[in-house]
Amino acid sequence: MTPDIQRRICIAPAVSSKIKEDTVTLLLPNPRSGYPARYAIQDGLLLEIQKVDPEGTRSWFIHEAVQSDGSLFLMTPIDPVFMFIPILEIMRQQTSESQGRFITLDSLFDSDQYTSLRHLAHLNHVEKHLDLVCEVRDSGMKTYRLDDDKVMAWLKKKVEHLVAKFSTSTALVESVSYTESLPEECRQEAITLASLRLVCAYLNETWASKLSADYKFPELDKMENRTQAPLVTVAEFSKRTASMELDDDLVTAAPKEIKKPKLTPGQRKLANASKAGMKPISSFFAPKKTE
After folding, report:
1. 22 lies in some domain
2. 291 lies in some domain
3. Structural domain that includes position 220
4. pLDDT digits (tens, 9 = 90+) for 186-206
């Protein structure tokens, strides 16, 4: 008897009929937490996989079968540079006496404990992406080392890009709807703050703190309880933007919320799940054992 095939409903970017390669799903370190998360590579693009749990009990009818898991999976583009930054930071091995080492492209994604990383070397324009945040040496073979100044410049451009594109996303506009009756200076600060939070959602605590320190919000600081302003959730932002034509440079994730929303049953299970056995990103690059 042929075993049952588990099927899922997934929304992903359209793929040209000329593309022959299958979509590859991967387990990669989340750039913010360092813990494993699901991603995919489709047509040389890196996609983030978001699972949206339904409220209550739901199921899907797929052809002649019923899928009892009524969850919806969304696959949205993510700039791979966000994935590269924590890996490059670990691999350069910077110390108080040394700026760190240069590494080749092959070495960057070489991990015996996390073999999925090797697929990142085959993304579109991977060397161009590395050039944006690395000091590059080319003496017959290119080598790379993370450059903190380049990283900060790139992150600020991301924030500026989101500010410029803010009005094109209903989800983002609604995230600052509380400023509609406020002066324009205050509204512009709120837009910048929301864009900053969106970028920080893909950064670890160290980089998020460095980036945030370069921004001031004097008008918002005059408001009481500004941190309680409503923010769009990750799932809601993904649902609203899934059918839109996404800009390749647009970060497709929502900021970390200060005021916690009501959790779905699936989210509660995830929040209460034990992280025992999960390894942070730093463990994937431990020195190889020699016999």
Report:
1. no
2. no
3. 159-253
4. 999 999 999 999 999 999 999
